[in-house]
Amino acid sequence: MSADADGGDRDGGAEATAPCDRCEMSIPVDAAQCPVCGYRPGGYSPRLLRAGEVAFAVAIFGSILIFVGGVMRLSLGVPTDILAQVAVVTPYTAGISGFFLYYLRKKRRATPTDSRIFGRDS
User: Fold this and answer.
1) Cα distance from N-terminal residue to C-terminal residue, the chain
2) Which of 36, 67, 75, 105 is disulfide-compatible with 90, CB 3.0–4.6 A?
3) For residue 64, is pLDDT > 80?
């Protein structure tokens, strides 16, 4: 058996495996689809998930802009209007949108061995 310069193993390059969530056969952890049963997690279109990610990213960006604008108006002594009143809730909007953005990114990148991501420990 030979070793690389960093001490790794060249001959024993065994791929990491885990059981498929559906058929329980051992498959590579980075497989997009189970090579045994054909299971592909999610059931949603990657295009739809990407659109959701973009929508939540825009919501976060818009929330930050509204918050900064409202705070600046208040700090400059401009009379409060709807922008300043809405600015109070935008941190919550940004936080909730951030959560859903994170969830959709995880869902889009899920593999057949990722049941632990969504709380379904086998």
Assistant:
1) 36
2) 67
3) yes
> What DSSP character marks residue 18?
E
Provide the residue count of the chain: 122
Q: Is 90 exposed, middle or buried (0-12, 13-18, 19+ CB in 10 A)?
A: buried
Residue 53 main-chain phi, psi, to 5 deg: -60, -45
Tell me, what's the pLDDT at 5?
Answer: 44
Residues 6+ apart with CB under 8 A from 3: 9, 10
Share of residues in the chain with pLDDT > 70 (%):
78
Q: How far is residue 30 from each of residues 21, 34, 59, 85, measured CA to CA in Å?
A: 13, 10, 31, 47
**pLDDT range class, residue 43, cuts 50, 70, 90:** low
The residue to which tokens 């059981």 are assigned: 19
User: How many of the other CB atoms lie within 10 Å of CB of 33?
Assistant: 14
In the beta sheet, which residues pair with residue 63?
A: none
